[in-house]
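Hi V.,

You were right to ask for the full record rather than a summary. Here it is.
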Amino acid sequence: MHNSKIPDYIKDRVIKRRGKLNIHEKIDAKSTALLVIDMQNCFIIPNLSLVEVPGVGAIAPNINKIAQTLRNNGGEVIWTKHRYTADWTTWYENFCNEKNRNQIIEDTEEGAFPGELWDGMDVQEDDKIITKNRSSALAPDFFLLKDYLSNKKIDTLIITGTLSNVCCESTTRDAMFLNFKTIFVEDANGTRSDEEHNATLINMIQFFADVRSTDDMLRLIENN
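Predicted structure:
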């Protein structure tokens, strides 16, 4: 679990701009979805994959609590699984050497154990599971999720999962650009260091999302 810290000067800047620190005082749980980003074996199980995020399994209990509370109040729970593919050429050709990128593709291909959701996650039968092949689950060329949310009349998204500063941040940004109300849960997202995590929180609170703790999130859902 990260030592989450948003500097006071950032909070003061936010309050000066919009008059308050937090955006959403109430939510409608029935029009809200929890997005759980990429809580897969490859990211969580130690020494299984090159993409491991050490210690990120510690956020699982918070995610599971939010998921169950939202289900109990009529909301949606959606899990994403990331698949790295060679047709994502800007990643494939530039960000890993050939050996590593081919191993990562193999780890996350359909049916491979490293690419499956970790068994520490409380995935229920009525939850939705989608596969994505870009960092953002709402990338412009991947609108399966957008269409699903529209059909379900979802207007509010709670973002959790890994990595805070990659897939979770990318998804939150795209969600906000698409006019969804966005909430980023500071202790239910995780990445490889406190510095990277907190840099994302600073971006989120200023421009892209209401930043909340798990306890805050549970109260918002239960008091909807």
